[in-house]
Amino acid sequence: MSPNSKKRRQVEPWQDPKAKPYITIENVTKSFGSTVAVRGVSLSIYQGELFCLLGGSGCGKTTLLRLLAGLEKPTTGQLYIDGVDVTHLPAYERPVNMMFQSYALFPHMTVAQNVAFGLKQERLPARVIQERVKEGLDLVKMGNLAERKPHQLSGGQCQRVALARSLVKQPKLLLLDEPLAALDKRLREQTQFELVNIQERVGITFIMVTHDQEEAMTMASRIGVMEEGRIRQVGAPHDVYEFPNSRFVAEFIGSINIFEGVVVEDEPDHVLIDSEAAGCKLYVTHSAAVPVGAQVAVALRPEKIMISTKQPDNTRNCAKGIVREIAYLGDISIYYVELPSGKVIQATLPNLLRLSERDVQWDDEIFIYWRAENGVVLTS
Q1: What is the Cα–Cα distance from 80 to 225, expressed in whole angstroms?
Q2: How far apart are CA 80 and CA 323, in angstroms?
Q3: In angstroms, rounded to a whole number, what is the distance separating the alpha carbons of residues 137 and 295?
Q4: DSSP type of residue 174
Q5: Residues with Cβ within 8 Å of residue 139, at least 6 apart in sequence
Q6: Residue range of the domain that includes 155
Q7: Are residues 94 and 167 in the same domain?
Q8: Selection from 250, 367, 365, 240 nearest residue 297 by Cα
Q9: CB 28 within 8 A of CB 78
Q10: Alpha-carbon gap, residue 142 to 146, rounded angstroms
Q11: Burial class of residue 187 in the structure, from the number of CB atoms within 10 Å of its CB (0-12 exposed, 13-18 middle, 19+ buried)
């Protein structure tokens, strides 16, 4: 069961007009001299969410995280946490903790001392510190390594210590800046699920920054896709993937085929688009209203495309092509199919048969086709 499947069974507060946001970002802009890192961002995040800011390098996602942490001050705009205006509060007065990509563990301290450091700075009683440290280490399954030093730990264990150190301070909001970037692929995948399970148990709101699409899709309750300091789309992972609201989001999240075309029919139940690149009419059953004659693009995920050596009955959403390349990836294969227009599209199919046993091979002439509900019309 994926972490997201648990979340989808719960009431989604962002769809409830009566729900009150826990974190509110109101028209925030941050400039560094002539460079604008964050541009008029407004965003609402709800209690208990694991919200992910996703984007490429330099898009402003880490700057936005630092603004919430109090490590940067906004040029304009307001920030609220649990109904309190924290825009001008210093970092040490905010109910926020931040876990950095480097983990920043003290090398001369033991695991337990690293976790206790922030609590000692708050001058809490020794008994309280001891109890919280034990609870924190047990939560991340590091209790048996409490006396080790950071150099005696693996990357994944250091990540857990940094997480425990953040959680024992019992913040209202935990900010994570590329928290899994230092881990290898296998450990990163394992830690993703552990981090989600911990977040669900403690109930603290997490905001995570990453450039890793798979990480965001696996872990987040919602994703905010950023470009050039702006939020381009916010939604649950499946919504952002299946229904991108712009060409940028469609191309940024996963692999995508884009067909340019002209709208020739706009009806309540479908849109018909003439595409020279596809060499066929594109029939899409869901779309915002678009005027006849408008230039649009249709986005189509590779896994939605089917391949056949025989021509399907329907001529819409169907094109002839030649298989130019097959990329074998173990569980799936990616077929690169060249259409008569010269456009190369990708079709992803599961490897149910060995490569040598399949009907379709390199340089074969085949037909690609897809269902009307699988295309997405993009107007921007």
Answers
A1: 21
A2: 54
A3: 57
A4: E
A5: 164, 167, 198, 201, 202
A6: 3-248
A7: yes
A8: 250
A9: yes
A10: 7
A11: middle
Q: How far apart are CA 86 and CA 80, in angstroms?
A: 6
Is the overall model pTM greater than 0.70, yes or no? yes
Q: Is the pLDDT of residue 199 over 80?
A: yes
Which residues is 275 bridged to in the sheet?
A: 280
**Helix or strand or coil: residue 171?**
coil
**Higher-confidence residue: 319 or 380?**
319
DSSP tag of 270: E
Identify whether residues 119 and 197 lie together within a single domain.
yes
Please answer whether residues 110 and 161 qualify as being in contact, where contact means their C-beta atoms are separated by less than 8 angstroms.
Answer: no
Is there a contact between 249 and 225 (Cβ–Cβ < 8 Å)? yes
Tell me which of 227, 248, 269 is where a domain ends: 248
The pair of structure tokens assigned to 62 is: 């880490």
In the three-class reduction of DSSP (H, G, I as helix; E, B as strand; rest coil), residue 25 is classed as strand
Paired strand residues for 259: 298
Q: What is the DSSP letter of 322?
A: E
Task: Identify the DSSP state of 364.
Answer: -
Above 50 in pLDDT, residue 268? yes
